């Protein structure tokens, strides 16, 4: 039997050495839309961790960079309280494969926190 869990997502966007743009909020919502579309992949990573550790919970922040073509150039775990390297690596690798809307200018650096809790 699979455990249910809650997943809370928050977003912080940091653009690469450019001043804040009027369309930054629009791009943030586009990033959230892509992340939400890929939530089943994130859930799979977490469910695999829950199968090993039924009480697995914590916050995981992934830093990634969206290239000029919309592909993720790099993805890595910034911070984690999960204490499960397998889930952390799975989430970072999953994000690496995502495709976003092309940024208007340059690349975009994103720090995206996920909070996991069995429920």
UniProtKB/TrEMBL annotation:
tRNA processing listed as a keyword: no
Record's signal peptide: 1-22
Alphabetically ordered keywords of this record: Signal
InterPro entries the record matches: MasK-like_C
The organism's place on the tree of life at top rank: Bacteria
Protein name per UniProt: AgmX/PglI C-terminal domain-containing protein
Organism listed in the record: Nannocystis radixulma
């Amino acid at each position: 039997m699979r455990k249910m869990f809650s997943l809370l997502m928050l977003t912080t966007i940091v653009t690469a050495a450019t001043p804040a743009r009027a369309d930054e909020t629009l791009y943030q919502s586009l990033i959230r839309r892509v992340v939400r579309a890929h939530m089943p992949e994130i859930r799979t990573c977490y469910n695999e961790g829950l199968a090993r550790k039924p009480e697995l919970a914590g916050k995981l922040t992934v830093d990634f960079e969206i290239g000029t073509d919309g592909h993720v150039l790099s993805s890595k775990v910034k911070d984690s309280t999960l204490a499960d390297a397998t889930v952390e690596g799975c989430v970072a690798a999953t994000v690496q494969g995502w495709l976003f809307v092309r940024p208007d200018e340059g690349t975009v650096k994103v720090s995206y926190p996920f909070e996991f809790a069995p429920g």
